[in-house]
């Protein structure tokens, strides 16, 4: 196991508890890096979702994602300096585990097309054609939970 990966801590919780850390990561990745309008990036689903935030050894938030009550995973983001260290995989695994524990039979996500291989490696399959969301190419992906 990559030593950088083993030093990452994942925290699952409510928006009220994790908002500051999740917002910092999402703003850096989506708004600054990918130029997604801030009014599109933040939405009412945050308040009802379970959020996952990854922290490095210094306690700095380096990644985030969320699970909506209907089984959609979204807002997966990892800061540039933490990419390639397995952070995204740990966040996704935590959200899959949460979805399983919540009794979902299937999880759904809208993957940026360039990241589809990452999600495929975690058991998701592409469903349908590419589409545009917030000016970025995406595909719908699903994973059936056992």
What does this structure look like?
There is one protein chain. The protein is of the alpha+beta class and 146 residues long. It has a domain at 3-104: 3-Layer(aba) Sandwich (Aminopeptidase). Helix content is 32%, strand content 34%. Strands 1-2-3-4-5-7-6 form a 7-stranded mixed beta sheet, sandwiched between helices. Strand 3 and strand 4 (72-78) form a beta hairpin. The protein is globular, with a radius of gyration of 14 Å. Mean pLDDT is 94; it is low at 1-5.
Quick structural overview:
This protein is an alpha+beta fold and 146 residues long. The protein has helices spanning 3-6, 15-33, 38-41, 87-101, 116-120, and strands at 9-13, 50-55, 61-67, 72-78, 106-112, 125-133, 136-144.
Summarize the SSE layout with pairings:
Blueprint: H1 3-6, E1 9-13, H2 15-33, H3 38-41, E2 50-55, E3 61-67, E4 72-78, H4 87-101, E5 106-112, H5 116-120, E6 125-133, E7 136-144
Parallel strand pairs: 4-5
Antiparallel strand pairs: 1-2, 2-3, 3-4, 5-7, 6-7
Mean pLDDT: 94
Strand content: 25-35%
Enumerate the strands of the largest sheet in spatial order, edge to edge or round the barrel. Answer: 1-2-3-4-5-7-6
Based on the structure given, which CATH architecture of the domain at 3-104 is correct? 3-Layer(aba) Sandwich
CATH topology of the domain at 3-104, by name, is Aminopeptidase
Oligomeric form of this entry?
A: single chain
Q: What's the overall geometry?
A: globular
Report the radius of gyration as a whole number of Å. Answer: 14 Å
Low-confidence segments: 1-5
Per DSSP E runs of 2 or more residues, the count of β-strands stands at: 7
The number of helices is 5
Class per helix and strand makeup: alpha+beta
Termini separation: 26 Å
Largest sheet: 7 strands, mixed
CATH homology superfamily name of the domain at 3-104: Gcn5-related N-acetyltransferase (GNAT)
The CATH top-level class label of the domain at 3-104: Alpha Beta
Give helix and strand order, one letter per element, not per position. HEHHEEEHEHEE
- Bin the helical content: 25-40%
